[in-house]
């Protein structure tokens, strides 16, 4: 038990030290719900901020209720290690059911054990899961008593997705930490890639980086980035864009190219479609959506127009294909 406590505390501390987290409405809603409910699911696409948000939830709840123990677990099989009588705790199951989303016999046994503590108000639980896992777990979520009164916070939903203002603050935070200067002036040399001068407009709602900045990001490019909705997830793209100088030179393309995982998912769907007509139909629908209305020489996954790639297999479901 002490091992899991120490590990969770270390992750929360590391999360704080990064100084890149941006509090959003989704986080505030989760904390408010956990004050009166026992089970919350935080869902979203890969890289949408589920793990960072859940760590911040643990941090803030621990700060408010010092007598609580908080745990982050990566598998249900650790439940017996941390759920003890006379201990009130909040447990985060990060990427719940990812490995065995279609084999729930063992998970159901563990959830039954966990429910006995939840029903006594001794445990509150946060599950994070990717959207496709949430849909794969539909039977479990709709039948098991532990999820009878759960609330699902989808980070990619219209209600909780990042606003443009939040995106601007987020990308700017990452730029500050990684010494990328945001250029405001129209007089800047268009070919300039290195600058030691950090301009600032006091009317802007964000900071520019310090004098030692070695990479410059034009305001027009920043505005273009803010308008994107990458499949990989805006928070993760911000991290990749600012931490890797090679990515920073790609400008907005870094936010529009599909990830390797996405390409693999599409290829997997194509191969499964050979023997499974429903997956084959999903693949055909996906390709039609990606290519409809564009010339053939622009129908490549790495082109700008393929931001529609969010409609990949994990967001296409059997009901949509009927």
Structure overview:
It comes from Mytilus galloprovincialis (Mediterranean mussel). This is Novel STAND NTPase 3 domain-containing protein. The protein has 322 residues and is of the alpha/beta class. The chain folds into 3 domains: 2-154, Rossmann fold, CATH 3.40.50.300; 164-255, no CATH class; 260-321, no CATH class. It contains 14 helices and 7 strands. It has helices at 2-18, 25-34, 50-64, 79-82, 105-118, 131-136, 138-143, 164-177, 219-226, 234-243, 245-248, 260-272, 277-291, 318-321; strands at 39-44, 69-73, 89-93, 123-130, 151-154, 180-183, 215-218. The strands form 2 sheets. Strands 2-3-4-1-5 form a 5-stranded parallel β-sheet, sandwiched between helices. It has a two-stranded parallel sheet with strand order 6-7. Helix 5 (105-118) links the parallel strand 3 (89-93) and strand 4. Helix 1 crosses helix 3 (50-64), helix 2 crosses helix 3 and helix 12 (260-272) packs across helix 13. It is globular and about 60 Å long. The termini are far apart. The model is unreliable at 190-211 and 293-322 (pLDDT under 50).
At CATH level 2, the architecture of the largest domain is: 3-Layer(aba) Sandwich
What is the chain-wise order of helices and strands? Answer: HHEHEHEHEHHEHEEHHHHHH
Q: What class, by secondary structure content?
A: alpha/beta
CATH-assigned homologous superfamily of the largest domain:
P-loop containing nucleotide triphosphate hydrolases
InterPro entries: nSTAND3 (IPR049050), P-loop_NTPase (IPR027417)
Pfam families: nSTAND3
Protein name: Novel STAND NTPase 3 domain-containing protein
């Amino acid at each position: 038990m002490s091992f899991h406590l120490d590990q969770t505390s270390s992750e929360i501390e590391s999360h704080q030290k990064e100084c890149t987290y941006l509090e959003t409405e989704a986080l505030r809603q989760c904390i408010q719900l956990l004050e009166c409910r026992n089970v919350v699911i935080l869902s979203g696409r890969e890289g949408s901020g589920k793990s960072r948000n859940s760590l911040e939830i643990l941090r803030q709840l621990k700060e408010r209720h010092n007598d609580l123990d908080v745990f982050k677990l990566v598998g249900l099989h650790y439940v017996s290690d941390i759920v003890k009588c006379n201990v009130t705790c909040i447990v985060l199951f990060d990427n719940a059911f990812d490995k065995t989303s279609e084999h729930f016999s063992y998970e159901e046994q563990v959830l039954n054990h966990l429910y006995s503590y939840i029903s006594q108000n001794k445990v509150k639980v946060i599950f994070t899961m990717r959207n496709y896992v949430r849909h794969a777990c539909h039977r479990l979520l709709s039948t098991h008593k532990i999820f009878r009164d759960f609330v699902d916070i989808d980070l990619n939903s219209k209600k909780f997705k990042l606003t443009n203002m939040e995106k601007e603050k987020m990308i700017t935070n990452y730029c500050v930490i990684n010494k990328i200067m945001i250029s405001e002036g129209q007089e800047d040399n268009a070919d300039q890639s290195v600058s030691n001068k950090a301009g600032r407009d006091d009317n802007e709602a964000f900071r520019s980086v310090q004098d030692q900045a070695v990479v410059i990001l034009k305001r027009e490019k920043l505005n273009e980035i803010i308008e994107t909705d990458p499949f990989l997830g805006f928070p993760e793209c911000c991290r990749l864009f600012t931490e890797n100088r090679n990515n920073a030179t790609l400008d907005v393309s870094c936010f529009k190219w599909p990830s390797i995982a996405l390409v693999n998912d599409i290829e997997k769907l194509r191969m499964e479609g050979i023997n499974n007509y429903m997956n084959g139909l999903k693949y055909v629908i996906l390709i039609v959506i990606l290519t409809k209305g564009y010339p053939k020489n622009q129908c490549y996954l790495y082109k700008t127009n393929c931001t529609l790639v969010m409609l990949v297999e994990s967001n296409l479901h059997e009901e949509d294909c009927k």
